[in-house]
Amino acid sequence: MTKRQKATRHSRATFVFTPELGGKLRHLRRQRSLTMKDLASLMGRDSPGAFNHLAKLEQGKLSHPSVNLLLDYLRGCGAGPQDLAALFGPYLSLPPVPRVKADAAVKKLVEVLPGREQQKVLTWDKGMTKAYQERKMGTVPRPGRSEGLSPFSRKKQPRVETDQQRVIRIVWSFVHANWNEIFEQQLYEAMLKLKDDVPRSRRKVACDLSRRYFGVLTRYYANAARRKNALDRIEQKAEEEGFSKQTIAALIDAAMRSYQQLLLSGRLDWEPTQEEIIRRRGQAPAVLKAEVRLEIDEARPVSEENKAQNLVRVMVQMAVNEKLEEKKLDHFSVKRHYQAWIDRLVEIGFRHGPGSPEWQTAVDATAPKLHDEAFARQMAALAAETFNRWTKPRAPGGPSAT
Question: What is the C-alpha separation between 264 and 242, in angstroms, rounded?
Fold first, then answer.
């Protein structure tokens, strides 16, 4: 390597062995009571020019001494880790080279600013640097964190829920349960049709995509374009999941029909009463998800007789639900009571018949407890009529369940 190449390499270096560092080496040698000759012998450098080389090192005339020379010098003096820290500690504590260059560039820019703005920038930088150092050392904890710990070991404190937030959360849980009752039924019917197209392992993914679509529809958007973009992203996600266009259309249709039913019935603006929340102790009714209902149906052995009974049960419930919607009584609390009652009546109908004393006893026992006894007895009569119509033997072109 030529002298010019060495000069170029050293000019780009950031470390320079100054006379101050050389003085520290001389002080270290004298503390050990070593002469220059003794030190050269301990270093294994007995050549005539070794003394001159060591003298230049202690005088700071070697700006960039080799690592071998420095290590041999310190080894000959019997230096320890504390001596190394005292010698190179100040240099190692300096910030990295890019930070130094950045600080120099910022300082150059700050000098161009007027005096008042220059003072504001310097004060702000000083405060930010001090706060960063305090957080790094763990002396000043951040808000909501324990004191005396490193920022990397502090644990985030759990968020405390206010009374107002708790009330809003409970009310919305009831509202969502009300909405999901309609949606999960529509999604369940759609998944029954898609049972052969959607594998069992992909049912939850398909149902979740439809739920996301329904969630966007029921959410308030000030800008219609944002809602359309959100719906388009869900459709794109469904395509990326590998679902066919027919499957995606059926899932979207289930969400759209549920949303339209909420709009037409007025349940989109429904709110639970205070008495209902207190009666249920703040726990919203659980709504069975569509994929769970499919799993239950597949686990239950279904015979031809069970299929016929299920068909009769569904037709009776549909007839009663239509009347409830006409009377604007299809909110989930009233509808749930009627559904449970009609299910019991249908079971009695299969065992004893809709005109049996057991049927009449069940009607007399439950009808007065509902909101309108006369209307409840009309629903019982409608259930008996529908039951008889769908349990008669098959006529040409007529419905039959058996």
Answer: 34
